[in-house]
Specification:
The complex is a heterodimer of chains A (581) and B (625).
Chain A (H helix, E strand, L loop, with lengths): L1 E5 L2 E5 L5 H7 L10 E3 L4 E3 L8 E4 L6 E2 L9 E4 L3 H16 L15 H8 L23 E3 L9 H9 L6 E3 L6 E3 L16 H5 L5 E3 L3 H8 L5 E6 L1 H4 L15 H11 L3 E4 H22 L5 E2 L4 H10 L13 H17 L6 E7 L3 H6 L5 E2 L2 E2 L3 E4 H10 L21 H4 L6 H15 L17 E8 L2 E9 L1 H13 L6 E5 L19 H16 L9 H11 L5 H7 L4 H8 L1
Parallel strand pairs in A: 1-7, 12-13, 12-15, 14-21, 15-18, 20-21
Antiparallel strand pairs in A: 1-2, 3-4, 5-6, 5-7, 8-11, 9-10, 16-17, 19-20
Helix pairs in contact in A: 9-11, 9-15
Chain B lengths: L6 H11 L16 E6 L2 H5 L2 H14 L6 E6 L11 E4 L3 E3 L7 H10 L9 E2 L6 E2 L6 H4 L17 H6 L4 H9 L2 H11 L11 H10 L6 E6 L8 H24 L3 E7 L3 H16 L15 E7 L8 H8 L23 E5 H13 L1 H5 L9 E8 L5 E6 L4 H8 L9 E6 L5 E4 L9 H6 L8 E6 L4 H15 L5 H18 L5 H17 L3 H5 L2 H9 L1 H8 L15 E3 L9 H5 L5 E2 L7 E2 L9 H5 L5 E3 L1
Parallel strand pairs in B: 1-2, 7-8, 7-10, 8-9, 11-15
Antiparallel strand pairs in B: 1-3, 3-4, 5-6, 11-12, 13-14, 13-15, 16-19, 17-18
Helix pairs in contact in B: 7-10, 7-13, 8-9, 8-10, 10-11, 10-13, 17-18, 17-21, 18-19, 19-21
Classes of the chains: A alpha/beta (581), B alpha/beta (625).
Chain lengths: 581, 625
């Protein structure tokens, strides 16, 4: 243990602890800006670039960045001397001297960590009014907006993109005053190998990285009397959207959200969980076929567009491995515009499908050229959880004080299996529940595959399908995906089924969710909220969803049928993505 | 070429080659045998020195005089002001500013005829007499060449000549007779401190790196010389690469490394070429690679090119760049001696530091530490530039005064102006005023007067230089070269530059002067690396010593040195103007009006202050105010 004093108080901490960590353990709240430590997903941004957390260390010539300075025996630290406070203030004043002052109309207003710090410091004048760096705003993709003018060079996105996700789309570029984090050669992001996972958006303290918003387009559709506007809600949204209304993280607000969306004027409120169940049924068929033939294994899940993009960029020779199933979002959209449209007698051209997703990449996915059925787009607009909260507020809905209502039928019926799609391991667990019963013909008594649950980046399990041991893995985070895929490529490891989600923790921690900043417990709470929903649901196996059964009976025939393939599968996943670029 | 596999064979090689240098050391063979040595440094090569040596060589062959005459290139002689320089041995005749068309004359008159070419000899500016030999020239007389000992003496592309100077003997001695601990002790005893800027004890740095156990360690030579005006490292690499290679081998032995890297800027192509030649030759002769000189010690060196970012001279940034990453510094600790290249213990030593190492073991730490001052031992190379007569590289013992360097070696202020300030330490250093001319220069004394040793750039300023503008220049450099990582350096320096620019444009206020100090404080106190922490030094030192100039700009809106264009006006004196129209016809923007034989007037709102009018007026009617 190392003994030191901070602001006159003695403390002993383990060797290697930083001054910041030691101070926080004493409840000394040293302000930080660039620093971000997400231990559970092994993310640490410790670049010490903002110089806001500086402290005075006796005997040291200059101030020390507390976030990156390890403690030493006998160290005497002062966190709030005049020298410290005036330096912090000055550096903050310097940061805002090269930052736009459009806070009122900024997408990140009230969610901005820089804005909050300026408010906390009580800075109320603009001390420096020199040149501001000017960079072009990048709206090249349908998902991610880059406004480099708002970049404060904290490098959080870069650390996320390079070290956690190993995508490597973002890097610091240039020198001096105009240094900026950008794709290589400052190319538009759509020309980079960005997979649009949106994790950079989750960690960006300002509005330098945000999702591309579609709120106005959705309002326009809602106010267009010729359109039937149908909304679908992804599982991970219901355990997070309440946070935007001051409710607890993980608290499921499904019924309130349904009621709120109905108030906004949507003609039908459907559940993406229905699409999840449908995905399970279609994918299980593929899984069983491949396992029986023992070919093209492992089968990789295809629900997550960020992950599919990653595969395309980094492992093109493994592209035969994913399931050909569309994602639940696209399946739900496709069924709305075919089966449901027919049933209701509405021309699918007059239907607008809006989906509410915890995700940025879903915006990208919905816009892919091949994500359509019989020439009609499956999904028209994708809103994030954050956006839908804004729409609700604008539409006078307060989720705290609204009575719960039910989803519309038939695409509102779902199972516990579909709900857990919203977290890492959930897609795999849901599939296993169905695969087991379909493959063995037996009833699965205990549906809980707890071995594949949790925030750990990779969970491996073996499942006995009546003698055939199936080796499965659930992987979250693209850096972990890279490790697994490298082992598969080299033949070092063998698996039968692998679920991969781009975001650490899965969709509950998606790039479109309310900003959790460094409160990692929020991700766990959302995850356990999903499992609680699953536990409380009567039907917990996707193939037992009566609405799904009816859909096959009335419309699709059987799983994997020709019609199912036309509507629910894509064959050119990859070339389509390339084409869009 | 046979490999040298033992210290005995190395001594044999020395005996075999030492005759190569006898002419150069003044030993005449007969009255006909002569050697022509032409400076092959980048500066002289830019003035056709390669053509000069080739012309000599051709004349020698054409006249069949190969047996008695020889023409060679050598490293930089240091007296760049007078280049290209040609020396004739054994007489040590020193020809300056030689052009290719002068070669025939030197050949005919001197090499064949035995008569010196008087007109090409150096003329002492004070005494107005021609001087025959280099050691009589005041520029050289007061120098003490240790790091530059072989520069200008040997052909850097021939390892035999380096061996002939006693080269690689120190390495041989160490490998045979010393333990790494003894090597480190000797280094500590010598008192050698890092010549790259900060002046940390080289021996201690090695000791730290030795103290961290690891399966792999590295020696890096920092040849990313970037201070404006400094070129000593380039000259050493171009003129004497082997001494750096030998120094690196010794360092490798001391810390337990087997691989070294020279990180050198790509803008130094000649140095890179010569270094590559030297590495190839050393490897071929068994002085680099596996089992050096037959010992157990193996060490090799590879070259890595930098893209010319100033910040990559900072050791952690250099290491990042070497690893193929963006050249950006990181927080210390951990220091590279603990966790450096690829996370392994690494020492980063500057070129000049390493060039000193072999001599320390050749002549002993006691000898080395007898040179210099109490805290700063040995010699230091300075790159003299600016308003000085003798621009060039000078090496003097630590403790030499500025006055000696500027007036005795440097030949005083160019154009007869008055000395105003010496800028040392580059963008991290400060401007030293007249009252400190007699300060003995060492690490501590320079720091105490607000400057620093830095890598040894020394830019002399006269009363024609505006100190506010000089401060602005250095800040501009920093703003360009900051890596952009930390806030105070990226934005703070930019704001300082904006204030300085305002002041030089007459838009400064007295509050600005306070703001400069306040910003400087935060930048120095909170920047991540040495670049930012020292960036405000030029501003602070000029604020301290030349406040009157700042005040003149801010309060009177006047630039005393007449440098700041926006504070300057051209006017036509009516009593002197005869209306000849010469100024008006020469004005590129047509801002001078007036009829023939009428007094002319300058429209100040259109004037671009190019000075064309003043040069055209034959009657002294145009004045600059």
């Amino acid at each position: 243990m190392i003994n030191l004093t901070i602001d006159g108080q003695q403390i002993s901490v383990p060797e290697g602890t930083t001054i910041l960590e030691a101070a926080r353990s004493m409840h000394l709240d040293i302000p930080t800006l660039c620093y971000l430590n997400l231990e559970k997903i092994k993310y640490l941004n410790q670049v010490a670039s903002c110089r806001i957390c500086v402290v005075e260390v006796e005997g040291r010539r200059n101030l020390a960045p507390s976030c990156a300075t390890p403690v030493a025996e006998g160290m005497k630290v002062v966190t709030n001397s005049k020298r410290v406070l005036s330096s912090r203030r000055k550096n903050l004043e310097l940061i805002i001297s090269n930052h736009p002052f459009d806070c009122l109309v900024c997408a990140k207003s009230t969610d901005c960590e820089l804005q909050r710090l300026v408010w906390e410091f009580g800075i109320n004048t603009q001390r420096y009014d020199g040149e501001r760096s000017e960079h072009a705003i990048d709206r090249s993709s349908s998902a991610l907006k880059r406004d480099p003018n708002k970049c404060i060079m904290c490098r959080r996105c870069e650390t996320m993109c390079n070290e956690v996700q190993t995508v490597g789309a973002l890097t610091a570029f240039g020198r001096g005053f105009n240094t900026i984090v950008a794709p290589a050669e400052k190319e538009p992001i759509v020309n980079s190998n960005c997979v649009f996972c949106g994790q950079c958006v989750s960690v960006c303290p300002t509005a330098a990285l945000t999702g591309i918003g579609y709120i106005q387009e959705v309002w326009a559709a809602l106010f267009n009397p010729k359109k039937t506007v149908i909304v679908q809600v992804a599982p991970a949204v219901r355990v997070a959207v309440g946070e935007e209304f001051g409710m607890a993280a993980g608290e499921a607000v499904t019924g309130k959200l349904v009621a709120g969306l109905r108030r906004l004027g949507f003609n039908a409120i459907f559940d993406t969980t229905f699409g999840a169940d449908l995905t399970v049924v279609e994918e299980s068929k593929e899984i069983i076929e491949r396992i029986e033939k023992n070919e093209n294994l492992p089968i990789l899940t295809s629900c997550c567009p960020g992950w599919i993009n990653f595969l395309e960029h980094s492992f093109p020779n493994l592209k035969y491995m994913p399931s050909t199933c569309k994602s639940p979002q696209q399946m739900t959209g496709a069924i709305i515009k075919t089966y449901y449209a027919e049933k209701m007698g509405i021309d699918p051209k007059d239907i607008v499908v809006v989906s509410v997703m915890p995700c940025i990449a879903k915006k990208y996915e919905a816009a892919l050229p091949n994500e359509e059925t019989y020439g009609i787009r499956d999904v028209d607009y994708v809103l994030t959880t954050r956006e839908v909260a804004k729409m609700l507020k604008e539409g006078s809905v307060d989720l705290r004080h609204i009575q719960e209502e039910e989803f519309d039928n038939p695409l509102g019926q779902s199972t516990g299996a579909g709900v857990i799609f919203g977290g890492t391991g959930g897609v795999l667990e849901a599939a296993l529940r169905t695969v087991y019963e379909k493959a063995t013909g037996k009833t699965l008594e205990d549906v809980n595959f707890t071995a594949v649950r949790g925030l750990n980046g990779m969970r491996i399990a073996e499942v006995d399908l009546d003698g055939r041991l199936v080796r499965v893995a659930a992987v979250a985070g693209l850096g972990n995906a890279r490790k697994v895929l490298e082992k598969i490529e080299s033949g070092e490891e063998k698996f039968d089924i692998i679920e991969i989600m781009a975001c650490p923790g899965g969709c509950v921690n998606g790039g479109g969710q309310p900003y959790a900043e460094e409160r990692e417990e929020i991700i766990e709470q959302r995850l356990s909220g999903l499992y609680q929903l699953d536990r409380n649901t009567k039907i917990r196996k996707s193939h037992l969803n009566p609405a799904i059964q009816a859909l096959y009976q009335e419309y699709l025939g059987e799983a994997g049928s020709h019609k199912a393939h036309e509507i629910l599968h894509v064959t050119d996943l990859f070339s389509a993505a390339v084409k869009q670029k | 070429m046979p490999e040298i596999r033992s210290q005995q064979q190395l001594t044999d090689a020395y005996e075999q080659y030492k005759g190569l240098l006898s002419l150069r050391l003044g030993k005449a063979v007969d009255d006909k045998t002569r050697l022509v040595l032409v400076c092959g440094g980048t500066g002289c090569q830019a003035s056709d020195s390669q053509k000069i040596v080739e012309k000599f060589q051709k004349l020698i062959i054409d006249n069949g005089l190969q047996d008695q005459l020889q023409a060679e290139i050598a490293g930089c002689f240091g007296f760049c002001e007078k280049g290209p320089i040609v020396k004739i041995f054994p007489e040590d005749v020193f020809y300056v500013q030689v052009k290719p068309e002068d070669v025939q004359e030197i050949f005919d008159q001197h090499l064949v005829g035995g008569q010196k070419v008087k007109r090409l000899l150096y003329e002492d500016p004070a005494l107005k007499v021609k001087i025959d030999t280099s050691d009589e020239i005041s520029f050289y007389k007061l120098q003490h060449r240790v790091a530059l000992r072989n520069c200008g003496l040997i052909n850097p592309e021939k390892i035999e000549e380096y061996i002939a100077t006693g080269g690689y003997q120190s390495l041989g001695k160490i490998l045979n007779q010393m333990t790494p601990e003894q090597v480190i002790d000797e280094m500590k005893k010598s008192g050698l401190r890092g010549r790259g800027g900060a002046g940390f004890s080289t021996g201690k740095k090695w000791e730290f790196a030795r103290g961290y156990a690891n399966d792999e360690k590295f020696v890096i030579c920092n040849a990313d010389e970037g201070d404006p005006g400094a070129f000593m490292d380039r000259s050493i690499m171009e003129g004497d690469s082997h001494s750096v290679i030998e120094g690196m081998c010794i360092a490798g032995f001391a810390i337990g490394a087997h691989q070294g890297y020279v990180y050198i800027r790509a803008e130094y192509p000649l140095a890179v070429k010569r270094l590559q030649i030297a590495l190839d030759q050393a490897r071929e002769r068994g002085l680099l690679g596996k089992n050096i000189l037959g010992s157990e010690f193996s060490f090799d060196i590879a070259i890595r090119l930098g893209a010319g970012a100033f910040v990559c001279g900072e050791e952690t940034a250099l290491i990042h760049s070497l690893q193929g990453m963006r050249g950006e510094p990181t927080t210390k600790p951990p220091f590279p001696a603990q966790s450096g290249l690829w996370g392994k213990p690494t020492i980063v030593n500057n070129v000049e530091t390493l060039a000193n190492v072999p001599v320390i073991f050749e002549r002993g730490a006691d000898w080395y530490s007898s040179i210099g001052t109490k805290t700063s031992k040995g010699t230091k190379v300075f790159a003299l530039a600016g308003k000085i007569n003798n621009v060039g590289l000078v090496e003097v013992p630590m403790g030499t005064t500025l006055r000696e360097i500027i007036y005795d070696i440097g030949g005083g202020i160019k154009g007869g102006g008055e000395f105003k300030s010496a800028q040392t330490g580059g963008p991290s250093g400060g401007c030293i005023p007249k009252q400190y001319l007699d300060t003995p220069i060492d690490y501590e004394s320079l720091a105490s007067i607000g400057s620093m040793m830095g890598s040894g750039g020394m830019i002399i300023m006269s009363d024609h230089d505006c100190m506010v503008n000089i401060a602005r220049f250095y800040m501009e450099f920093i703003v360009e070269e900051s890596c952009g990582r930390c806030v105070p350096c990226r934005i703070g320096n930019k704001r300082m530059l904006e204030i300085l620019t305002n002041i030089t444009e007459g838009k400064g206020t007295e509050t600005d002067l306070l703001e400069l100090r306040s910003l400087a404080e935060t930048i120095m106190d909170t920047s991540l690396c040495g670049l930012g922490q020292t960036a405000p030094n030029p501003v602070l030192s000029t604020l301290k010593y030349f406040m009157d100039e700042y005040e003149a700009h801010v309060i009177e809106k006047r630039c005393p040195a007449g440098v700041c264009q926006k504070l300057m006006r051209y006017e036509i004196l009516p009593e002197k103007c005869i209306g000849c129209t010469a100024c008006a016809r020469g004005c590129p923007v047509g801002c001078i009006s007036g009829a023939v034989k009428q007094v002319h007037v300058i429209d100040q709102s259109k004037c671009i202050k190019c000075g064309a009018c003043i040069t055209r007026c034959k009657f002294g009617a145009v004045v600059r105010i």
